[in-house]
């Protein structure tokens, strides 16, 4: 029997959980190295957490030496990461770049834009939709409310995920091993205003609070005087494909009220993507 691995992505039909059609043992592969490489990436994409090289070799029925050579090459190009302490391998930032590029295509933006616009109209504040791209968030929909503060979150802008409400919402929904791979040490924590987590421990604590609260916040860490709340948009497997957020100025608004509206919009987008 031929087996197929599940792979995260978006498709034009509106489903945000696509099924890869890369079989375990394709017939008559003309370029074995390329075939093995794609099978390894597909396998890692379908795992909920990083795995050992021996497991990859066993599951894909490949020689261990081949798997180690290909993993080393993929790591050199950023497509996989080696977690040395755990002796396991997971997807790297270059793989997320590819996933983010696909996510940025029409289906998500088309379905998200009217919902983000409605959210902005409802609250009278600027709203946006963003996706993960490596350790950054990439803004794909931006709805500016009239007479509200100027923002840096134009469509196509990237910001460090750990500083933004959108990024924190998505990071909190990722497997902890993946977050650790993205933020292995203090060098992975750029700052903009001198605020925000600057160590893996600080980030872990922040994300723990996000999970407990159900939404993420940010106060002056992207731009002084601006605050945001964000909620993740999850696919059918629980993977964060995007996040909805609202940003406002120094006014003392009801954060819980804004957060509920953002969560409702994220849930509505989830339902539309899964149709």
TrEMBL record:
Annotated Pfam families: HTH_IclR (PF09339), IclR_C (PF01614)
Record keyword Cytoplasm present: no
Alphabetical UniProt keywords: DNA-binding, Transcription, Transcription regulation
Keyword Transcription part of the UniProt annotation: yes
InterPro entries: ArsR-like_HTH (IPR011991), GAF-like_dom_sf (IPR029016), HTH_MetabolicPath_Reg (IPR050707), Tscrpt_reg_IclR_C (IPR014757), Tscrpt_reg_IclR_N (IPR005471), WH-like_DNA-bd_sf (IPR036388), WH_DNA-bd_sf (IPR036390)
SUPFAM superfamilies: GAF domain-like (SSF55781), Winged helix' DNA-binding domain (SSF46785)
Domain HTH iclR-type: 31-121
PANTHER family, A to Z: HELIX-TURN-HELIX TRANSCRIPTIONAL REGULATOR, ICLR FAMILY, HTH-TYPE TRANSCRIPTIONAL REGULATOR RV1719
Protein name: IclR family transcriptional regulator
Provenance organism: Microbacterium aurugineum
